[in-house]
């Protein structure tokens, strides 16, 4: 446009205007030469991006892709249920994908309980029967148990008989009497009677002796009466307990005999019962462990949610990033190709008003 002048004839146009017209025609020539490459690029990217987006992304989001994969006979000779050893044929790709999204375990997703029976594989009842049969055949023999030997029995009996106290009858009779052979009070009274008959000097001495005897009797009654009573009670207690010593010894020996007979008769059964109770407790431990192992294997081992997340991430990367960019590329390039035709027409029409002409056209 800088080289155009309205007053100049077309045969006298400047070099700048002529170069602009030549560039218009050169652009038209390049468009005719290379436009087929542009069209081919648009076609290829459209076929790849558009069809892949429709076949993969849309069918994935609408679950039609899984329905197609679940179609029987899609792949000749391939059957997922038979491959997993299932008779009912209930396993399919859509169901597996749904369970993986719910973070199901591999055991539940593949329905492995139909091909592998954990109850039969981890059933210990068969071994329990064998253990019971083997345990019933066990014969427990123990060495004879002797709580007391015959010598020990005789020794206890002799000790109970020898432990009888002597006869305390004479001793008790003596204890019932006074501590002194005669009565001190009577002796004091006799001294006082003699004092009344004696002279003055002897009278005072006899009365003093009588008073001393009375004080001695009082002191003896105070100091010895409690001790004598305690001694009597102890003697009576020894006599009463000594009478029961032999009977108690015989009762203990009888209980020892019964205990020994019970041990000889029931010890083997007691040991056998306690051993079986211990075995049952061990079997309960094994059953608890097996139950825990089955629950962990069927519910926790090999959860497949990461697999579903991986497939979702692949779909997002492929569809939202790669295919969307590719489709945007061919869509933009296609519009460039569409606008190429009017640009060629426009360039040809404009070149007439820019190029220097050989013959002036007055019209």
UniProtKB/TrEMBL annotation:
Keywords: Coiled coil, Glycoprotein, Membrane, Transmembrane, Transmembrane helix. The keyword DNA-binding does not apply. The chain crosses the membrane at residues 23-48, 328-348. Pfam families: Prominin (PF05478). It is a multi-pass membrane protein. It is found in: Cell projection, Microvillus membrane. Residues 228-266 form a coiled coil. It comes from the Eukaryota. InterPro entries: Prominin. One of its GO terms (cellular component) is apical plasma membrane. One of its GO terms (molecular function) is cholesterol binding. Belongs to the prominin family. This is PRM1A protein. The lineage of its organism: Eukaryota, Metazoa, Chordata, Craniata, Vertebrata.
């Amino acid at each position: 446009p800088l080289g155009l002048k309205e007053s100049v004839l077309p045969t006298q146009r400047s070099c700048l205007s002529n170069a602009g017209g030549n560039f218009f025609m050169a652009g038209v020539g390049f468009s005719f030469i290379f436009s087929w490459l542009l069209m081919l690029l648009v076609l290829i990217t459209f076929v790849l991006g558009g069809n892949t987006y429709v076949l993969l992304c849309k069918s994935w989001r609408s679950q039609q892709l899984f329905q197609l994969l679940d179609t029987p006979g899609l792949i000749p000779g391939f059957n997922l249920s038979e491959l997993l050893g299932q008779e009912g044929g209930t396993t399919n790709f859509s169901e597996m994908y749904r369970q993986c999204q719910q973070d199901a375990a591999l055991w539940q997703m593949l329905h492995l309980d139909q091909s592998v029976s954990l109850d039969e594989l981890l059933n210990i009842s068969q071994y329990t029967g064998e253990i019971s049969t083997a345990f019933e055949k066990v014969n427990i023999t123990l060495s004879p148990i002797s709580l007391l030997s015959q010598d020990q029995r005789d020794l206890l009996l002799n000790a109970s008989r020898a432990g009888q106290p002597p006869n305390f009858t004479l001793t008790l009779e003596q204890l019932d009497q006074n501590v002194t052979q005669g009565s001190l009070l009577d002796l004091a009274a006799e001294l006082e009677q003699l004092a009344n008959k004696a002279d003055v000097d002897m009278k005072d001495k006899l009365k003093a002796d009588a008073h001393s005897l009375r004080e001695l009797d009082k002191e003896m009654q105070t100091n010895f009466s409690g001790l004598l009573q305690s001694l009597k009670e102890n003697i009576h207690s020894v006599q009463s307990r000594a009478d029961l010593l032999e009977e108690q010894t015989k009762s203990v020996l009888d209980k020892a005999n019964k205990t020994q007979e019970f041990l000889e008769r029931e010890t083997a059964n007691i040991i056998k019962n306690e051993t079986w109770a211990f075995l049952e407790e061990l079997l309960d431990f094994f059953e608890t462990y097996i139950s825990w192992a089955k629950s962990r294997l069927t519910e926790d081992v090999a959860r497949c949610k990461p697999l579903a997340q991986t497939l979702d991430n692949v779909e997002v990367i492929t569809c939202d990033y790669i295919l969307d960019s590719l489709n945007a590329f061919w869509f933009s390039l296609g519009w460039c190709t569409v606008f190429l035709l009017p640009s060629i027409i426009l360039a040809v029409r404009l070149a007439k008003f820019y190029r220097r002409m050989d013959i002036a056209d007055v019209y």
